[in-house]
Amino acid sequence: MANNFDIVVIGGGPGGYIAAIRAAQLGFNVACIDAWKNKAGKPSLGGTCLNVGCIPSKALLQSSENYAQLQHDFADHGITVDGAKMDVPKMIARKDKIVDKLTAGVSFLFKKNKVTSLLGTGRLLKHEGELWQVEVKDGDKVEVVSATRVIIATGSSPRQIPGITVDNVNILDNEGALSLASTPARLGVIGAGVIGLEMGSVWRRLGSEVTILEAMPTFLGAADEALAKEAAKLFAKQGIQIATGVKLGKVSNGKKGVSVEYTDAKGEAQKAEFDKLIVAVGRVPNTVGLGAEEVGLKLNERGQVEIDDHWTTNLPNVYAIGDVVRGPMLAHKAMDEGVALAETLAGQKGHINFDTIPWVIYTNPEIAWVGKTEQQLKAEGVEYKAGRSTFGANGRALGLGHADGFVKVLADAKTDRVLGVHIIGPFASEMVAEAVMAMEFSAASEDIARIVHAHPSLSEVFHEAALAVDKRALHG
Q: With contact defined as beta carbons under 8 Å apart, do 23 and 30 qualify?
């Protein structure tokens, strides 16, 4: 096998595998280095997202939501079932089957696009002449490949809390939380971010008593305040207990479970006992073992690879994308960076608009937003108008039995250009795409208001919110 490539990509997650495929489509001779293996010990491309992140979590969320609807919601439709049971091992097996199918799909795409797949971890060795020497290590097997250009797409790992050891038996990270053999009676979650809320939702629906402990004084601080307030209310209604402003103390892992001592927002000492504890306090970039210090690759104070606006590092012909660089740690952001960088290297005009990257939390109801929040606009002194419409008056939402939540549209007070859209409600993850499209094409709220939306559909709530910006909502 030839070991000299135009481009070597280190990391086979969403950013890495997409960068490799797009670069190959553009005529480059490409190799992608990735160390991930499945339970059978076979290569499993797709990184955290496909293996232990985005994809498996959504599979479990859907399974648990189906069970919850059967238990609580279907009776309203005239459907009653006695003796319904959840087979957790079968649910996990279904999740694993979906993961295997998609990771195998990436391998197929590599073969289709003639991308060479190299199993192992990648490390920058040295730059000789016009070529980079890159080590590929898989256990005792070591080989060196050369490349004109190197793309670092090594992703991120769960952030650890000093003094708390993740064993994925009682104290879990995202990987352990996705592979529980049974439903814990009492589940604790440290961190009320995306992972904490989604994993908490899965196991709450299956019968766990869920308590989420969040260090920040506010809930979902990155989201619009009105959206966060509505989410907190609905999660509390579902039985998920969320404590903010928490200061962690001693965490003890014993045979009978995990004991967590903490100080609450009022400064009062508390102690909670859990069967399982999920640690979900964010993620850190993967740069350990990359050879950064040896070759002089510049990292910032957060451990991210430093890049310019074109994903270029301080080293010649070395680039970086995805979770390992600045910006939101989102799979779709990494994918688009992979495409944009590959096209830039081919002499095209690769570009990403970071102002229109959507955020989604796949709870029930789903939460999604794009653009500025009200608090951001106020802080920046931007004059704006707001329009809001609820799902409670929407025929499609009522028919689905999911009528909680709302859509809020924020527009510039002078130009009417849409500055942000915030959604909490059914299929928010799908609805936000219209908002992204509108903002990418600099739409005004009036543009959205004058577009015909199908009736009955959930998208009508977005339409009504746009109408409400101009105080002419028709159904609210």
A: yes
